[in-house]
Amino acid sequence: MRNLITDVEGISVGQAEDAGSVTGVSVIVPDCPALGAVCVAGGGPGTRESDVLAAGRLVFDSVDAICLSGGSAFGLAAADGVMAGLKAQGRGFALVPRPGVPATPIVPAAILYDLANGGNKDWGDTAPYARLGRQAFDAAGESFVLGPAGAGYGAAAGLAPGGTGSASIVTHDGLTVGALAAVNSFGSVRMPGSAAFWAWPFEISGEFGGARPEPGFAFDPEDWGAAKADPSPRENTTLACIAIDAAVTHDELQRIAQMALAGMARAIRPVFAPTDGDVIFVISTRKREAGGSRPLAIARLGELAASTLARAIARGVYESERQEGRP
Amino acid sequence: MRNLITDVEGISVGQAEDAGSVTGVSVIVPDCPALGAVCVAGGGPGTRESDVLAAGRLVFDSVDAICLSGGSAFGLAAADGVMAGLKAQGRGFALVPRPGVPATPIVPAAILYDLANGGNKDWGDTAPYARLGRQAFDAAGESFVLGPAGAGYGAAAGLAPGGTGSASIVTHDGLTVGALAAVNSFGSVRMPGSAAFWAWPFEISGEFGGARPEPGFAFDPEDWGAAKADPSPRENTTLACIAIDAAVTHDELQRIAQMALAGMARAIRPVFAPTDGDVIFVISTRKREAGGSRPLAIARLGELAASTLARAIARGVYESERQEGRP
Prior knowledge:
Two copies of one chain form a homodimer. Chain A is built from four helices and twelve strands; from the N terminus they run βββββαβαβββββαβα. Chain A is of the alpha+beta class. Chain A has one domain: L-amino peptidase D-ALA esterase/amidase, CATH 3.60.70. A five-stranded mixed beta sheet of chain A has the order 1-2-5-6-4. In chain A, strands 3-12-11-10-9 form a five-stranded mixed beta sheet. Chain A has a two-stranded antiparallel ribbon with strand order 7-8. The two termini of chain A are 27 Å apart. The mean pLDDT of chain A is 95. At the A-B interface, helix 3 and helix 4 of A face helix 3 and helix 4 of B. Chains A, B: One of its GO terms (molecular function) is aminopeptidase activity. Chains A, B: This is T4 family peptidase.
């Protein structure tokens, strides 16, 4: 157990960063076409191939990769690079399975805003994202770095350094739920005036430092703590991908995505703000049976997705701070 | 200040209960047509006139009342009674403003499932809901009872008694946000093994008992505490109505509804489950200007809506327990 989304069998993650542009890309790659769903919760999202995941569509069960990127809408090009890598492997949805007709890789993607983080964005006509996407795809494996890495490389979580986080859980009956989050939130991940993450109740084995709220914590509805003060539209966003191995229907996976929103809400405050582009993807490898009565099994997976996501968010910021040597 | 949704100027609330059927109705009545938005977050909702509130529709700015009811889909008839009361006052949307042509009262409504709570549901062809809706409307005023009252009268919040809760906040610059919740959740409102509500960080002045989490709280991802064990579909639901006086656009109000979801997520675990019919209405009386830069003003109202809703949910259960003499 790595406490990473790659604990879900068949899931690889690759990341790439551009230190000069202070930006990066994370790609989540299942080893076979996955079922996918998405929940767009923020007011300023930037997405690609999200419509393919809606009910009634053709290929929501053929997701080849999920791509998360910095770069605002420029970062949507990262999926081009991921598609190129998949094409080189002959992967994709083969609508017309004939020699000479390439299969179409299905790569839903979402971006976060890191254009104003001080990096050099003077990239002329060619943004680095297609290159970073390919690089991330080629690097995909079971291990990857948390904190200032991948899509969260140039991110800021409120006034704290943002980052990429991940976490996983394995149930007693062998189901695995993993989450990866790139945290660039408008809101703060910490309780105001406290070292405790909002996600503290969900922490396992001190994975994000073990800070607990002060006994005398008093709520001020107008105090957002270390949230961003007054961002312009799209300067924020928390991107997430959750992976499960349980076999569920598309409709059930959509419900799990909706329940996973709770994990974001419990880890960040404010959340889903007008300037957040919050997006949650959920993919299922469908490699294991989910037991129990159906609605209860889905409620269980949805709640596990929520808590695992809350943990991944806190870990992303915690690891960035730790590696920067912040207290 | 009553710490009720009726602290929002022009908002009245009426409630009615049927002790034999162990069910009830709550109605929220603005004194002039309000702007309305809705967010349906649960897997098993029961609603009426929710589509009228969507973007691009004709009368989302003419909401005459919001009706919350027990009774599962039978409870949607409560809006009939509310409409009758409004018609008697000549209120409604006048598409054809001619003598003899009644205006159409716009009453978005949602229900919760309390059919299996032991009450006598042998009501033949005529469910009590239209009568209860009218009775609630006629009783509307600035004061109303919390706990086992109104739509939450026959409710259960996980394994705890459900109920109707409310809370409000007034900002330093004079904006008011109020919330009313009928809590019949699948999930628990308390941290497992703890007297503390999940919503404890948002409590103001001990309004729901002041319990705080134990310092040694350890998370078990599979422990839902006092959640319901294995409900059938639609046996649950948290219904909410949030009222604001700030003048916002319909699009902005929809964003506030989405942000308010976070309040439900922070107060109940699991939430948005397949068997929950969670619905949040938000109405604006548009009586005050919301100052500040636009996205920030909306983020602020959305976060105030979230925390006020979390408090209203906890108060509903707390008041039911207190009035039942539970510790």
